[in-house]
Amino acid sequence: MKKELLIASALTASFGLANVAEAAANVSYSGSVTRGVTQDDIGGSAASGHTAVTTGELSFAIDQTTDSGIKWSTSLSVVDEGSAEGDAGGLTLTFTDGSTLDIIEAGSAFGGAIASIPSAGGSQGITNTSTNNAPGDLDWADASDAVGFDWGSAADFGGIDGLTIGVSAAFGNDTQTTGSSGAETTYSAGLTYAMDAGDTAVTIGAGMITATSDNNTALNDKAASASVSISAVTGNLTLGAGYSNGSGTAGKASTDVEIDSVSWAEAGVKYVSGDMTMIVSAGAGKAADSTALGTAGASSDETRNVSGSVAYTIADGISATFGYTDVDNTDEASSVAGNSGSSWYIGATVSF
Questions:
Q1: What is the pTM of this model?
Q2: Closest C-alpha among 204, 187, 96 to residue 148
Q3: Looking at residue 10, what DSSP letter applies?
Q4: Per-residue pLDDT tens for 141-156?
Q5: N or C terminus: which one in the chain shows less Cβ crowding within 10 Å?
Q6: Dist. CA 347–CA 123, nearest whole Å
């Protein structure tokens, strides 16, 4: 729940600038504080046990509308996952026809064209090993330089009910570093199509991205991928699924490597009953990675997870969550016992 602030007016008044307060942008804030406990049961020589979860979030949203009706907006993240951040967001222009243009840290049309797929909540503690290059989400290939743009159409593009499209590009500095592969020039496109099928609201998303590498030794682009996703909402029930594949480069130990035959698939189910939300989700990813740039990927990395959560709204802005996940990670075709197992979480979040 966001609350409007009078920060701009207070600051301008304190500096004797009350007469220009009307020109200040609108500022709102939001955030949360989470406290809980997670218990991990993992294999190998890694220690199982419980850990306190203490995280906080705080961000500000800033916007102003010009006399011509164009809305300018940005954001500032002050605290992210409990750590001070001070990360300024990009700049978004919203035009009178409903279309948008993001510039500077704009993201990509590829990442924005993914249907909403239910994913279990909680702060379960099992992580992947750093040498496992299997992807963990649909937009694993979403790589771009901060200098670029992302344009998104208004709803019903081209007179087609429910259709929105987007295109984006970003441009790097063509700086090559031995053993490192960064995004040079990125192009992406995406679309979403929303329709009603009887009592069910269906959304389909599809996107593609190509990000060239700034390393001349690399065989692959920094990232090249296509994705498709779908969600269906009928009453209190939501179903979703998605798939993406491609190739690219990724970090491994002290150097970047090639990753080939990359894929990720996920699915989720959500049911809302009064103040309770129940979610079950699953995902599986795999990739063949190499030992260095210039060598095709051959070693198999995989990750799989099945998760569930129950969230209960205690009062406005206060929720309790119980989450559980079971994870299996494989690196170089061998099971990674110390990064596989089960974990549960119980905790509460206060949002404002």
A1: 0.86
A2: 187
A3: H
A4: 998 888 999 999 999 9
A5: N
A6: 9
